[in-house]
Amino acid sequence: MIAREGYTIIAVVAGLALLLGVGALWAGSWLWRAPILALAVGGLAFTLYFFRDPERIPPPDARENGLLAPADGRVVEVVEEEEPLYLKGRAQRISIFLSPLDVHVNRVPARGVIEYAKYRPGNYLVAWHPKASEKNERSEFGLRHPSGTKILFKQIAGAVARRIEYDLVEGDTVEAGQRFGIVKFGSRMDLLVPPSVDLDVEEGQTVRAGTTVLGRLPAAGTAESESQVPGAASEPASTSPRSSSASPS
């Protein structure tokens, strides 16, 4: 299955591959034809591979209260820090780096309601840079689980990625593992939860979006701490479109 966000790019690459293929037919010998054909076929194959969108089914015991990985990749950080946007207090942050070879389709980490959604333009530092989470182009989503637990997750563009796409808005009711967007060509996903959430993830671990369980959330109806009392997000919803693009610097 191919991600719909890649259709235009795939069409362009396929057109270029066709032109290269035709050009190879006019080359004088196989010494010229072979590299041209390899470039055409290899470029198209990589593009199709990058935009693959495999079906993901969350573990049955994680659909209600599981905290799922929102992206494929390698966990590069598990740290505690202040989170002023949505959780408004101490938070545990899990950062996942996506290489160009990983599946780039992103998935919602838990069931609940989207209370906060904002797109922020920014820089294009390498995705593993410590300041990428607050300096790079990104989208941010605040989700409230039925237990009252708040979760913040971010799509973060990297040095190569120049386009973030998503289809979440405030008020959406979502399910754990639900597909919601993509960051093209290398990126990072940050997931922030309260310190009270029991995590089961380590730095260096490889995770898969929608299937790897990173922790457990309280059951619905469980009383949360004062920091989780329902309240409005600190900023209004963004009026920006659901997809963003940036010109190469």
Would you give an account of this structure?
With 249 residues, the chain is of the alpha+beta class. It folds into two domains: 4-50; 60-245, Glucose Permease (Domain IIA) (Distorted Sandwich), CATH 2.70.70. Helices cover 18% and strands 32% of the residues. The chain is built from three helices and 15 strands. The strands form three sheets. An eight-stranded antiparallel sheet has the order 9-5-6-7-11-3-2-13. A hairpin with a 5-residue loop joins strand 2 and strand 3 (89-98). The longest helix is centred in the first third of the chain and has 21 residues, at 30-50. Residues 223-249 have low confidence and may be disordered.
Order of helices and strands: HHEEEEEHEEEEEEEEEE
Which structural class is indicated by helix and strand composition? alpha+beta
Shape: elongated
Kindly report the CATH topology of the largest domain: Glucose Permease (Domain IIA)
**If you average the pLDDT, what whole number results?**
82
* Helicity range: 10-25%
Question: Which CATH C-level class of the largest domain is it?
Answer: Mainly Beta
Total domain modules:
2
